[in-house]
Write a structure and sequence with these properties.
By secondary structure, the chain is mainly α. The protein has a single domain, classed as MFS general substrate transporter like domains (Growth Hormone, Chain: A, Up-down Bundle), CATH 1.20.1250.20. 79% of the residues lie in helices and 0% in strands. The protein contains 15 helices and no strands. This is Major Facilitator Superfamily protein.
Length: 398
């Protein structure tokens, strides 16, 4: 394997562990924990929302640290804290200890998940453009739900949620920590250096269009991302509410992962010719198509499987677009901090999603919860239309 791909492959593996343990495991374990801890579904996901909000608050700090020191020590330390916090989840005895365990886990997660991984690999002096490394990282991350939803359910059925959290936390600690330490070694590009010769030479937004582009891009990211955390954590519960068993809901959810990989593989094949604005639009159209199928045919097994496949392809491509679009529109300088601030705003708003959609599910049912998610995507598409395209001469002050 070309050594230039080694950092992306290593970070791809750790993203499987990171998202599997810090996001997807909640979908299976939090509803069960709520029963034992005497909490309602909305209460337990409300605690998760507070954890996500805290994660958004620390995200700019993680981005700035990567810009200043590189990703090796940031991601290594983050993986240690995240693993210990996940193990602590197995020791909680009430809402207060659950709150602090989730707070620590989600805060640490901002030092090991996609945004920091993207910024870390973009700093390395490699023989391939950052956009290609980002695509490779996300290609691996697509199987996180495929592995961790069935795996977490199996571990829970055998050991209970207490032991399951210890197992997943210890696994994350032992796998992710040495990989982060090993693959992020090597020379780094100076933040002010010229673009690599084989990187796409896309014009950046300038002048008033730059501020306008940041505003509408972030607003669109907020709408398209608002449902992501809810799908991760409530898919199983909502699909059960449509009339399927927990095992079947987890199986359908497991389809999302491989089709994330299918979407990302497609993006890799065409990424040299597809501008990130087009990539982002394609992702939202596919996700919306998935919800249309889910709302109309989700009561049947073929319908929920097809919906998961379409949503998975769109969500897989969207993850890449959210890393490459800020790079294309605003350039590489300050990229880590920029991703951190975007994440801060996005997660500050989106942190309420698990609570809001859990309350919708609890009050109106899974179908209406999915319907509101589809509405969020419609708003994301509408606001996307206002993002300036720097390739358009009308947006070039010269």
């Amino acid at each position: 394997m070309n050594r230039d791909y080694l950092p992306a492959v290593g970070l791809g593996i750790t993203q499987v562990m990171g998202y599997g343990t810090l996001m997807y495991a909640y979908a299976v374990l939090l509803p069960e924990m709520a029963k034992d801890l005497g909490l309602s579904l909305s209460e337990v996901f409300g605690i998760l929302s507070l954890g996500l909000f805290f994660g958004g608050m620390v995200s700019p700090v993680a981005g700035r640290l990567v810009d200043r020191f590189g990703g090796r020590w940031v991601m290594t330390a983050g993986s240690v804290v995240a693993g210990l916090a996940l193990m602590a989840m197995g020791l909680v005895e009430g809402p207060v200890s659950l709150f602090f365990a989730i707070l620590l886990a989600e805060g640490a997660g901002m030092f090991v998940l996609y945004n920091v991984a993207f910024a870390s690999v973009a700093r390395l002096d490699l023989g391939l453009p950052p956009q290609r490394s980002i695509s490779v990282i996300t290609l691996f991350g697509g199987v996180a739900s495929t592995i961790f939803w069935p795996l977490t359910l199996t571990l829970f059925n055998r050991f209970g949620w207490e032991v399951t959290w210890v197992i997943v936390g210890l696994s994350a600690l032992l796998i992710s920590t040495p990989i982060h330490f090993a693959v992020l070694r090597g020379p780094e590009r100076h933040p002010g250096s010229a673009k690599q010769a084989n990187a796409p030479h896309w014009p950046e937004l300038t002048g008033p269009a730059r501020k306008r582009g940041m505003l509408w891009m972030v607003v669109s990211f907020i709408f398209s991302g608002y449902l992501t955390g809810a799908v991760m954590t409530l898919w199983v519960t909502n699909v059960q509410d449509l009339g399927h068993t927990a095992a079947m809901a987890a199986l359908a959810g497991a389809v999302i992962g491989p089709f994330k990989t299918v979407g990302r593989f497609f993006e890799m094949l065409v990424s040299r010719n597809m501008y990130p604005l087009v990539t982002y639009a394609l992702s939202m159209v596919l996700m919306l198509a998935g919800f249309v199928v889910l709302l109309s045919l989700g009561f049947t097994l073929p319908g929920v499987i097809l919906a998961a496949a379409l949503y998975g392809m769109g969500d897989g491509i969207k993850t890449i677009a959210q890393g490459t679009l800020p790079l294309a529109l605003f350039g590489a300088k300050g990229y880590g901090a920029r991703l951190g601030w975007i994440s801060f705003v996005q997660m500050g708003v989106n942190a309420s999603a698990p609570f809001a959609f859990a309350l919708a599910t609890q009050t109106f049912g899974g179908w209406w919860s999915f319907a509101v998610m589809a509405l969020c995507l419609c708003c994301a598409i509408a606001t996307y239309m206002f993002i300036p395209d720097p390739r358009n001469p009308a947006h070039d002050p010269a």
